[in-house]
């Protein structure tokens, strides 16, 4: 079924909705800037129209002087010309001043909008990142770059300025020769229709191609980003990725150029009409002048007004067209800014227990990702007690990382519950609850910041020069890594910036371990914390591990069972289910999956 054509009422509502959104953006700018912009625009228009009127008066004065018996008064003529030039100069200066205030206002609003987008992106539930629709809405909100909000404000102000200029020209033209006003308005109207029509077509095409453009951007990112540089060269896939990129860009370019071609033809036809209007108007006034029905100043004034009207009309129509495009952008922006986290929390979050006795637990939890029919976890129960070294083992894809995300309340389960000292975690403030955990994920972040900042980002409430930072760095072996760098702890850990260095995978893992140990949290979760560390460094880390926990509960995920055997209690996860649990001795005695894994690894060392 085709979409219904919007009614007149609907179109009017959409029009006012546009201006409500523009005003919503403007209110985040300085009120003083807004007043300056308004006054500057008003003065600019008054000076421009004043200059045109001064031309008419100067021509009248010169004509009258020329017909007088005593000849032309050159002093008076020069004075009139000076006034005209002075008004034109003042108008140009005021135009520059107005542009400055408009730019300043645009930048203020742009910074606000970008901050709002960043806040919503950070506050969004992790589940949003599992949705292509989320990425599309974010892409549309950010489309055209960081300066788009500034463009919205500039276009709105240009529409206001252009509209006032056209209104002033219309008033003067009506006074001089009212019969020319209707055909001038028709020419401006034709320009407006063309611009709005093709702006709409571009927007619809943009929405249709957003997935393709994201694929192209991804290919470009692969070719130009450091994390993929090694594989691209080893596998020699640069040409393949370029071909993928160009294939998509060719389709995108073809569709956009088809619209631009039709727009160019339509604009050319409108320009012809506009030129004919100016020519016909000039001819009409020339005829009236030749028959004595108009003054020479009227002819000059009408020509100047029509030329000015054509320029002002084109600027007004272009700005209004861009503002219509901005309406489409603003709709996408405000849709994204209206995103709310869906994780349930009580109206008045409960305070977290000061002393944790029972620990944190999953109780018969089942969880599926939005795009998957198969549960990632099914009827899983697990507990981490304070001061206890708990281990979790399982094959790739068994659901270990998903389990961590549920423990930290990055997701909520569809069935069962996550409890903290016996209380449902949905009763707590999510941010406060997550601060009870220090986590190192297998794919931990390597920030292009200094070594000191890479550690302290886990707890920004602490000073970067805190003695604890050095203590945890020594505990994990990161101290030796950072001390040997050119600026020590203050060396940037990326060649992305001048003076930065690159670390090996094992060195980075020590930094990440320090980051996890730095906060004085109640629980620490380590996902494959030593996968890139040599056996000696691993032995040093886990030697006296319980003492290093400082009373915290720990969940360690590792494929190295030599580490896991030190745990107080171990869970075995397979295909989303807990299939075994117990101490090392109990699990070996069960002669099940854990015993099989342990025997296989031990056989490798013995052979």
TrEMBL record:
GO terms for molecular function: ABC-type oligopeptide transporter activity; ATP binding; ATP hydrolysis activity. Keywords: ATP-binding, Cell membrane, Membrane, Nucleotide-binding, Transmembrane, Transmembrane helix, Transport. Pfam families: ABC_tran. The chain crosses the membrane at residues 33-55, 75-94, 152-175, 181-198, 269-289. It is a multi-pass membrane protein. Residues 360-600 form the ABC transporter domain. Its main location: membrane. The keyword Cell membrane applies. It is found in: Cell membrane. InterPro entries: AAA+_ATPase, ABC1_TM_dom, ABC1_TM_sf, ABC_transporter-like_ATP-bd, ABC_transporter-like_CS, P-loop_NTPase, Type_1_exporter. Residues 35-309 form the ABC transmembrane type-1 domain. The keyword Nucleotide-binding applies. This is Lantibiotic transport ATP-binding protein. It comes from Roseobacter litoralis (strain ATCC 49566 / DSM 6996 / JCM 21268 / NBRC 15278 / OCh 149).
